[in-house]
Amino acid sequence: MRSKKTVSEAKSAECWDLRLYIAGQTSKSLLALRNLKEICEERLGNRYRLKVIDLRKRPKLARGDQILAVPTLVRNLPAPLKRIIGTMSDKERVLVGLDILPAGTK
Amino acid sequence: MTPRSQNTSSLPIAKSPTGIAGLDQILEGGFPKGRPTLVCGGAGCGKTVLAMEFLINGATRHGEPGVFVAFEESDKEIVVNAASIDFGLSSLIKHKKILIDHIQIPRGVQEAGDYDLEGLFIRIEQLIDEVGAKRIVFDTIETLFSSFPNAGIIRGELKRLFDWLKEKKMTAVVTAETGDGKLTRYGVDEYVADCVIMLDHRVENQNSIRRLRVVKYRGSSHGTNEYPFLIGDKGILVLPLSSLRLDHKAPTRKVSTGIPRLDSMLSGRGFYRGTSILVSGGAGTGKSSLAAHFVQSACRHGERALYIGSEQSADEIIRNMRSIGVDLERWTKRGLLRIHCARPGTYGLEKHLVSLHDLTVTFDPSIVVVDPITNFASAGNHQEVKSMVTRLIDFFKSRQITAMFTSLTEGDSSPELTVIGISSQMDAWLLLRNLESNGERNRGLYILKARGLAHSNQIREFVLTDFGAQLLDVYVGPSGVLTGSARIAQAAQERAEAAERETQFRRKTEQLREKKRQLEAQIARLRKEFELESQQLSVDLKNMRSREQQLDRDRIDMSRARQADHSIERGRPNGTHALLNA
Prior knowledge:
The structure holds 2 protein chains of 2 kinds. By secondary structure, chain A is an alpha+beta fold.
C-alpha cells in the first residue's frame, strides 16, 4: 500500500528534467543560468537535470520546441510541462512557476 | 479630381507591387519595398486575405517567395480558408514558394525577470532562409501582447523586429485589429509607420460594404479617399471611384449599332469604340431590342459580346428577340455571345460589381450591354448606385469596351430625367419615346447627344418588324409628328398626289406634242400647196415662153413665105444677103 506522500516529498523523490533555452552567451542568459542554478541547488538538491540549449547553435529548435522568449525555462519532468520566461531574478515567481511553492504562499 | 497627398521627398521610393486589382493604382506602385506596411481593421474585414494575396502575387508574378507567419489560425486552417479563393496555395507550398508557419502563443506564461523575443527572431530567420523569402506577413502580430503581459518589452521587441526586417530588406505586411477608436489595439501603428492601410467592413441596408483607406504612406503620394473593395472568387478587387488619372486614350475606330440608318444618323459608321452609350426610354419603347441589334452586329463581325440582363432569363431574351428577327442563339452557340442574368436585389451592389468584373475579365468581350442599369437602383441608394455606374463605366473604358446601358424612365416623367442622373457621364444618349396619336402608339428615336460625332437631331420612327428594326422618316404635318398608321396614310396620300401630278405632267406633255404635230402638219400642207403652185407657175411660164417662141417662128416663116424684105430681118439694109440666101 502506497502511503500518501506530501507534495514536496513526492517532488523530491523524482528527478526533475529542466531545460533552459538561451540565445547566445548574453548577460541575460548568464544571469538566468546563475539564478536558476542557485534555486535548484537550494530546493532540489541534486535531483535535477539541467540542460542548456543555445538556440543560436541549434536554431531549428526555436520552432520545434516553440520557444519565443529567451531565456525560457521549461520543466519537462515532473509533468505537467511548465514554462517560465526571464532571467529568473524573481525567485518567488520561479518557485511558483515550477510548482515548488504553491501560489500565494511565501 | 480626387485628393492626393503630396510626395515631398525628391527620390521616388522603391515599391513592391501587391498585384491586387486597383490597389497598386491607389498606392502608385505598391507597398514600400523592404519596409513594413500595417493593415488594420476590424474582425473579418479582409486583412488576412489582403496579406495572403500580397504574398501569393509576390511568389507567382515577381519571383519573390514569401513567409506567412500566423499567430491565430493553424496552417491547415489557413490553407483551407485560402482555398475558397482561387489562389493555388497548395501548389506554391509544395514548390517552396510560400511557407506558412503557425506560431503557437503560449498561454499562462510565468514571467520571472527580464527577457526578450530572440527565440522568435531566430525562428523567423529560419523560415526566411528556408524559402529565400523576400516578402513576409505577420497575422496578427498583436497576439503577442495578449500572451506576454509585459507590454513594454513586447513593444520594444516589435520595434526591434521591424528594424531587423528592414535590415534584411524584407517587405513586410503586418495585420492588426483596430480597437477602441484607435487604429490598433496596442499602438503598433506608432512604429510600423511607413505605410498604414485601414480596412472597414459595414453592413448597410442588408448589404455588405467594404472600404479601404490609405491612412499614411511615408515618402509617396497616394489616393486619399475611401475606396470600396470586394472580395470575390479571385481575391480582392479594389475599385477606385474614378480612374485616378483620367488618361484613357480616345479611340477613333467605330462600331456599328446594327441598324444601318442609325449608323448614318451618327454621321458614319456608328459609335466610337470604347465609349459609353445610354439608351433610355419608357416601358416597351424598344430599348432591349435596340441593344440586341447592337449585340448581333458585333457578333456578326466576329467580336465577343456580353449581355447582362436583370429582368428576364437568357432563354426569354433569346425567344423575344427572335420575334423581331434577331437570332441570338446562333451566337451563344458559337461562343461569341454570353448572356448573364441575375436580379440585382439578390445580391448587394458590390457582389454584382465583382461578378461583372470577373465575367468581363474571363470572357474578354469588346461589347457589353447592361439591360437595364436602372434595376440596380433597388440594390442601393442613389449615391451608391451612381458611384457603381461610374466605376463600371471607367472599368469598361479602361479595357476599350464599348458599353451600352439601357435605362427605364418611369411613367410620365420627362425622359431627360434619368433616375440615377448618370447621363452626364455617358458619351452618347439615345432616347426612345412613345408617340401617341390617333389611338395608337408608335416608337420614336432621338439622338440626344453623341460626343465627338456630328449627329442628326431629327426624330425617326423606330419600327420593329419581323425582320429586324428599322428607322423611318417621320412626317411632320400641321398636327405634329405623324407616325404609325398616320404616317402610312400620309405617305399614301403623298404618293397619290405625286401620281396625280405625274399624270398631269404627262398629259400636258402629250398636248404639247400634239400641238407640235398639228403645226408641223399644217406647215407641211402649206409647203405642199406652195410647191404645187410654184410648179404650176413654172409650167405656165414655160408654156408662155414656148408660145412666144412659136410666135416668133411663125412670124419668120410667114415672112419667108412672103419673101419679105430684109428689113423684116430686123432692118438690115444689105440686100445681097438676101439674094445670096435665095
